[in-house]
Amino acid sequence: MLEKQNWFLVTKEILAQEEIDYDKIEAIDFSYALRYHVNYFKQKVNDYALPFLEIEEENKKKFLEHLAKDLFSISIKTFVSDLHKHKKKAPFAGSSPEERYYSYLTDRFGSISSIQQFFFEYPVLCRLLTERLEFHLDNYIQFIQGIEESIEEIIKVFSVKKPFKLEVYKLDAGDSHCKGKGVIIFKINGRKLVFKYKNLLLVKNLTNFLVLWKNKRVLIFIKYHVYT
Question: What are the Lantibiotic biosynthesis protein dehydration domain coordinates in residue numbering (predicted)?
Answer without folding.
Answer: 122-214
